[in-house]
Amino acid sequence: MKKNTQKTHRFNIIDFVLIVTVLACIIGIFVRHNLKEDFVESTDTATVTVMIRGLLKDNVDHLVVGDEFYSQRNGEKVGVLKAFETKPAKIRTPRMDGTIATTEYIDRTDVMCTIEVEGLSSDEGFMIGGTDYIGCGTSLLVRSLNIETEWLVVDIDVHGVVRER
Questions:
Q1: Ramachandran class of 106: left when φ > 0, alpha when ψ lies in -120 to 50, beta otherwise
Q2: Using an 8 Å Cβ cutoff, are 114 and 83 in contact?
Q3: 44-80: per-residue pLDDT in tens?
Q4: Which residue(s) pair with 1 in the sheet?
Q5: For residues 30 and 140, what is the distance between their CA atoms, to the nearest angstrom?
Q6: Which of 76, 84, 123, 143 is the most exposed place for a label (fewest CB within 10 A)?
Q7: Sequence-ordered list of residues with C-beta below 8 angstroms from that of 130, at least 6 positions apart, any chain
Q8: How far apart are CA 125 and CA 136, in angstroms?
Q9: Where would I find the beta strands (DSSP E) of 39-147?
Q10: Which helix (H) or strand (E) covers residue 26, if one does?
Q11: Is residue 43 within 8 Å of residue 78, measured between CB atoms?
Q12: In a 10 Å sphere around its CB, with 0-12 CB exposed, 13-18 middle and 19+ buried, how is residue 17 labelled?
């Protein structure tokens, strides 16, 4: 005859680690959510100058002043196009003697754009929407209703604080 004995589960270190991990995740989500709402209440505005390198001349017509641009990574609004200017794109090729030869592309252009963005200015830099860092030299993949492209941030001028209460 078999004895029916129930094994009782004893609390061990693995159970403790799992409980602490789950609690830490819940607390982290709660804190992150509250921090983002604090940033939305207090935002800075900035004028960002970006460069689009080697854009096909046919696609320049797709840049429309007033268009809103969104991040291709997370879909959040980056900013509004305020102005742009074009100049011929150039190829720089080093020669054997160490000098650099410059030749213009026939069908491409470089575009300098001025973008109005909202975010948070901090000691670490400017955060678009309070979450995405941008700085000089940062590359952003963006899209509007008319075009998808890559921006290279050239300059950031923080010029105002907007308080929403």
A1: alpha
A2: yes
A3: 888 999 999 999 999 999 999 999 999 988 888 999 9
A4: none
A5: 28
A6: 123
A7: 35, 36, 39, 40, 43, 119, 120
A8: 10
A9: 42-56, 68-71, 77-94, 100-122, 125-128, 132-134, 139-143
A10: helix 13-41
A11: no
A12: exposed
Q: Which residue has the tokens 């575009």?
A: 111
Q: Would you state the structure tokens that stand for residue 91, as one six-digit string?
A: 């190829």
pLDDT digits (tens, 9 = 90+) for 98-145: 899 888 888 999 999 999 998 888 777 788 877 788 888 889 999 999
Residue (of 29, 126, 127, 129) closest to 77 by Cα position: 129
Q: Which residues contact 82 (CB under 8 A, 6 or more apart)?
A: 47, 65, 114, 115, 116
Kindly report the pTM of this predicted structure: 0.66
Residue with tokens 């308080």: 163
d(CA 44, CA 31): 22
* Cβ–Cβ < 8 Å for 135, 46: no
Neighbours of 147 (CB within 10 A): 17
Hey, what are 163's tokens? 């308080």
